[in-house]
Design a protein that fits this description.
By secondary structure, the protein is mainly alpha-helical. The chain has a domain of about 130 residues. It contains 16 helices and 6 strands. Strands 1-4 form a two-stranded parallel sheet. The protein starts with a helix and ends in a 35-residue tail after the last strand. InterPro entries: Alginate_lyase_dom, Chondroitin_lyas. This is 2436_t:CDS:1.
């Protein structure tokens, strides 16, 4: 098929889909209202946020000067079906077991692979799609936030270029599915798995980035052709999630796979004008999987049995608090903050359970976003949330990611910064339970929290939720790491 024909077909599909898509909800999952408040009230005198702005500028400038836009077609290894436009990743916890296998020519195809929970395969970097996917989201967010704050068109132009190359250009675009995510290697057919859908969880931030870019010349408004084509891609990906065998499998999962499935699909429903479907999806999850995810004590038994108990419970809470925040923005959606499980537990019960466990060695930083989100909704009458947050904010985090702040007024208060301590995180720590996630940037770089950037008191708002520290907690925080 010629390139012109492909372009023509994409434009026709875009036009047809735009007839089906409503305007959708204005997206605020990135706390756009917080950016708006900061821009209007604090940008000229940022105070404790200056270090954050400096780091944002650094990351946006690096993205601006990237001369090789990310694309699935850049990979040296195509998916098993040979289509270079397909996203491709391997199951990170599966390892070749060549014991007793005769005449081994290639361990990847000759040896069976066995799962070892929490232990990462050493050759994951051979596939570039996961890493590039995360880097694309990271760069687009840095560029779009910088454009929104400073209205410098060249940053918007670069963000749109990255989005075009990854999602829209017929020569380089990723297909709107993940048929070959988290493939288990070895003898036999290599196929995608339900777990691979977790690889795409970062894409829930793309609608927010597009919203930030709306008034730029590069985008041209909320009804521009670019915006329609972006919504079309996510409309098609949402349809794949809804109807495909793998998507159905994720929807019927019991643990964090189902939770993050709802995070993704409800987001895309909401953005593409399908709010009623988003409400139905959230209600279905509330009445099914959520009923069994948190027991009376607050423990999440489907996550606590993993090799990193605290980590995976915090991971699921990232998604649960995201759903709660999203539900607040959809008229008619249930108040997910107050929903109870079969044993009478709520999100707060699960948050309290982890706080009461004490400060863990098990990668506690993943708890930052759900804990702060819970504090904002439920309050903190005893001060224990702030006490735990103060410990979290003393940790040095690898600087390839940054924190988004979640409170519209998060930059009102400032204070003193407690001393920092080290972290035992490794390059692979953001790869979730067969969920992919690979670090986009140099893990040798470390971002220090802004000096004078934090005051934890019962009444203060954490200033350095604007300080760019670790956003693997982009989904909610999470940009991938390998």
């Amino acid at each position: 098929m010629s390139r012109l024909m492909r372009i023509f077909i994409i434009h026709i599909l875009s036009w047809m889909s735009s007839c089906l898509l409503g305007d959708g909800l204005p997206f605020d999952l990135l706390s756009i209202s917080g950016l708006r408040h900061f821009k209007a009230n604090n940008l000229t005198n940022p105070g404790c946020a200056q270090a954050a702005l400096d780091d944002l500028k650094k990351k946006a400038s690096i993205a601006l000067n990237n001369q090789q836009p990310y694309s699935v077609t850049n990979s040296s290894r195509s998916p098993p079906n040979g289509n270079e436009h397909g996203y491709y990743s391997w199951a990170p916890y599966f390892h070749a077991n060549c014991s007793g296998v005769p005449h081994i020519k290639d361990p990847m195809t000759d040896c069976p692979y066995q799962r070892i929970d929490g232990k990462y395969a050493t050759d994951l970097r051979l596939l570039t799609d996961p890493r590039d996917s995360g880097s694309m989201v990271n760069d687009v967010l840095a560029l779009s936030i910088y454009y929104y704050l400073y209205e410098d068109e060249k940053y918007a132009t670069k963000a749109v270029q990255l989005l075009n190359v990854w999602f829209l250009d017929p020569d380089t675009a990723m297909r709107p599915n993940i048929e070959f995510g988290q493939v288990v290697r070895g003898p036999g057919e290599w196929v995608g798995r339900v777990e691979g859908i977790l690889d795409m969880r970062y894409y829930v931030y793309i609608p927010a980035a597009v919203e930030l870019l709306t008034n730029s010349t590069a985008v041209g408004g909320s009804n521009s052709q670019f915006t329609k084509e972006m919504k079309t891609w996510f409309f098609q990906y949402g349809n794949w999630l809804l109807t495909s065998k793998l998507g159905t499998g994720a929807r019927n999962a019991a643990n964090n796979h189902a939770t993050f499935y709802v995070v993704q699909l409800a987001t895309y429903f909401a953005w593409t004008g399908q709010e009623k479907k988003a409400i139905i999806l959230i209600q279905e999850f509330r009445d099914r999987q959520f009923q069994y995810q948190i027991i009376k004590s607050g423990e999440q038994p489907l996550e606590s049995g993993r090799t990193r108990s605290f980590h995976y419970q915090a991971f699921n809470l990232i998604a649960l608090t995201y759903i709660a925040r999203l539900s607040e923005k959809i008229n008619g959606a249930p108040n997910f903050w107050e929903q109870k499980t079969k044993q009478g537990a709520t999100i707060k019960t699960a948050v309290d359970y982890l706080v009461d466990q004490g400060f863990p060695k098990d990668d506690p930083i993943y708890f930052m976003v759900p804990l702060y989100s819970a504090k904002q909704h439920y309050g903190d009458s005893t001060g224990k949330y702030n006490k735990f947050l103060s410990k979290l904010l003393q940790i040095d985090i690898p600087g390839d990611e940054w924190w988004l702040f979640w409170n519209p007024l998060a930059l009102n208060d400032a204070g003193s910064m407690p001393p920092k301590v080290g972290t035992n995180r490794t390059d692979d720590d953001d790869i979730e339970e067969d969920g992919g996630g690979y670090t986009p940037a140099d893990t040798n770089e470390t971002v220090k929290w802004s000096s004078g950037a934090l005051s934890i008191t019962n009444s203060s708002v954490l200033c350095n939720y604007f300080v760019w520290g670790s956003l693997w907690i982009l989904i909610l925080g999470f940009i991938p790491r390998l």
